[in-house]
Specification:
Layout lengths: L3 E7 L1 H4 L7 H11 L3 E8 L3 H14 L2 E5 L10 H9 L3 E3 L1 H11 L5 H4 L3 E3 L3 E3 L8 E4 L2 E4 L3 H15 L7 E7 L3 H14 L4 E6 L8 E7 L2 H14 L5 E4 L1
Length: 244
């Protein structure tokens, strides 16, 4: 059975448009390469009660839950507190993390910096690619930072932990100069013939290169390739701009 995942994106800055969320796309790509299906994404403000409620809902409804944001030293970094509330546990200061933070910041270390050593009681610290910056794990909940570069780095470090028996998803694309109305019948044909392959249609507006990108993805590479080939063969030869 395919493992499922959910993403909980935390931050007023996302909801206000100050910052554009990049982490969901990173997570989706990483999970599909591991054969995990991202099923739900929820965005919430920096409010402990809301975060806690979503943590409980998402962790119980999916195999994996990844949070993004709210783990820094400032007043609006409340993810740890919220996860603790969700699980009915205390927030405690981890001696190892405190020691690492003091070593990193040296004389510049403040109580604000040390807030990043506060964890939910019972947290596993997964070292990943760099033992100096472990990821907080509580069962099927993975607490990740919001900074895209750090988020991506920590996800890469989690690959051995997340890798399972599921085959990765394979993706192929056909780019066409025809609009969706002109290719609808061909898409429907492929959807009917390849029920095991997910087919997507993504139009572009005023793009000089192509009008629609049609994607085909599933775990069976041969079936994905066959579906893409069948679709491309249904189009006029000069309507296929490129494939990947």
């Amino acid at each position: 059975m395919t493992r499922t995942a959910a993403a909980l994106v935390i931050g007023n800055e996302i909801l206000s448009g100050k910052i554009q969320d990049a982490n969901t796309a990173t997570l989706a790509r990483e999970l599909r390469a591991l054969g995990v299906e991202l099923r739900r994404v929820v965005v919430v403000p920096d409010e402990v009660a809301l975060i806690a409620a979503e943590v409980n809902s998402l962790r119980l409804g999916h195999d994996l839950l990844f949070t993004s944001g709210g783990v820094g030293p400032t007043h609006d970094d409340v993810t740890v507190e919220a996860v603790a509330r969700a699980l009915g546990r205390r927030v405690v200061r981890d001696a190892k993390l405190e020691s690492m933070l003091r070593a990193h910041y040296g004389a510049r270390c403040t109580e604000g910096h040390l807030r990043m050593a506060d964890i939910v009681e019972g947290t596993e610290l997964w070292e990943g690619l760099d033992a100096r910056w472990p990821t907080m794990v509580l069962g099927n909940v993975f607490i990740l930072p919001g900074v895209p570069e750090i988020y991506r780095f920590k996800l890469e470090g989690l690959r051995p932990r997340l890798r399972g028996p599921d085959a990765p998803f394979v993706l192929r694309s056909v780019y066409t100069s025809l609009d969706e109305g002109a290719i609808k019948a061909h898409i429907d044909d492929v959807v009917t013939r390849f029920a095991d392959v997910s087919v997507g249609s993504y139009p572009r507006w005023r793009d000089p290169e192509y009008a629609v990108r049609v994607t085909f993805d599933a775990r069976d590479e041969a079936r994905v390739r066959e579906a893409a080939d069948v679709f491309a063969a249904l189009l006029p030869a000069d309507a296929v701009v490129r494939r990947d």
